[in-house]
Design a protein that fits this description.
The chain is an alpha/beta fold. It contains eight helices and five strands. The structure holds thymidine-5'-diphosphate.
């Protein structure tokens, strides 16, 4: 089974992916907890450097780099684990490209084409949070050293990201989970949303 967590920055999807993995491990399941951009593959290493650099590549280049990293991720991590009967939980997957790179102006045709060979997740969980709350969490993490204008721009961008995520969620039948409250409260909602899947 292939489960994906998606959500805007500051939604808490990473925490929820970890909590679900722990929950399933306690139930005796074999879990592979992973993420995109990848942390252990060379493609993810380069992608993360590029994402942080000032010399921003063209959005289509970013989409291609994400897809290159995804290809390594699928062939080296995801597919082998699924073939071994394990549960794969990934924080972000190609839906992130359909949200972030789409908002950067990359066409759906292009994104569909470069992502078409990758396995479709069985379940995608969107941790939905209002952008103001997400922004507070991001500022908390960054120790408040973001400029005000930057914060405003990011808040606007977070709003667009959320709208796009919700649009895709409706079309693709994601499980949309309210991400407000404590990590434990959200975790309880995630487990409840997954009831009946195993
Ligand atoms: P993120 O999960 O936030 O990792 P980190 O904690 O290391 O910042 O992912 C990094 C960024 O990559 C995030 O802002 C979303 C972006 N991203 C894309 O733009 N397209 C993609 O296909 C993926 C997987 C991520």
């Amino acid at each position: 089974m292939f489960i994906v967590f998606e959500g805007i920055d500051g939604s808490g999807k990473g925490t929820q992916a970890r909590m679900l993995a722990d929950h399933l491990i306690r139930k005796g399941k074999k879990i592979v907890l992973t993420e995109e951009p990848t942390k252990e593959l060379f493609t993810g290493y380069f992608t993360r450097i590029i994402l942080r650099s000032k010399d921003t590549p063209h959005p289509r280049t970013i989409a291609l780099m994400m897809a290159a990293d995804r290809n390594e991720h699928v062939e080296k991590v995801i597919r082998p684990a699924l073939e071994a009967g394990e549960i794969v939980i990934s924080e972000r997957y190609y839906w992130s490209s359909f949200v972030y790179q789409s908002l950067q102006g990359v066409s759906d045709d292009f994104l569909n084409y470069i992502n078409r060979e990758f396995p479709k997740p069985d379940i995608t969980i969107l941790i939905d949070i209002d952008p103001e709350t997400a922004m507070e969490r991001i500022i908390g993490r960054a120790h408040g050293n973001d400029g005000l204008v930057q914060q405003f721009e990011r808040l606007e961008f977070l709003r667009k990201l959320r709208r796009k995520y919700l649009e895709i969620a409706r079309k693709e039948g994601f499980l949309v989970v309210d991400g407000s409250g404590t990590p434990k409260e959200v975790h309880t909602r995630v487990v409840a949303a997954l009831e009946g899947y195993w």
